[in-house]
Specification:
This protein folds into two domains: 104 residues, Rossmann fold; 60 residues. It is elongated. Helices cover 45% and strands 13% of the residues. Strand 1, helix 1 and strand 2 form a beta-alpha-beta unit. The protein is built from eight helices and seven strands, in the order βαβαββαβββααααα.
Amino acid sequence: MKKNANSVFFPILINLRKYPCLVIGGGNVALRKVTTLLNFKTKVTVIAPNICKPLKDLSKKNKIKIIKKSYQKDLLKNFEIVFCATDNPQTNQTVSKDCKKENKLLNVADVPELCDFILPAVVKRGDLTISVSSQGRAPFFAKEIKNKVDHIFPSYYEDIIDLAGNFRSIILSNKKYNSPTIKEKAFEKFFMIDWKKVLKNEGKKKANEYMSNFLKEL
């Protein structure tokens, strides 16, 4: 299904800890939405008359809240962001109209013309987040690119991005590195080290030692 020709979705990262999310639907599509949201520490409430077992299991572990009933407009009041993950076109349309009236941001699975925002395909390695989108036109193709990116950035990149974050904090907080020239030299030096090899052969503790040592040399 084509997206509205006037729709252009702006890529943005948002702190969903501030915005509890409502997911309407209790099947596999809802499960995929919920799983993605939980990866970003989101508070999630699921509403549906029928709930699949994996969602029930998440509820039992207190990872999500479940309201076992059909959708009603008054359920929107405590949420700013809504995900509609049903296979019922009438429900999708109803939720869309209600969200517009209540100024709620809405994502409807596989119906981009009803969406205020869409979800990209995501590769996440700790704080490293890489997203791929086709503006809702060809999500299957975005997923294929995401799978290729997934292989390019293995799990050890979680540690590398952690090292890079700590490195940047040190550079920005220490007056010794105030000079733009020294900062540039420091960042260039960081990329000269084969962090993959260091982490694989010697571990994260040793990687931090390498970082401390070459900072002293600047």
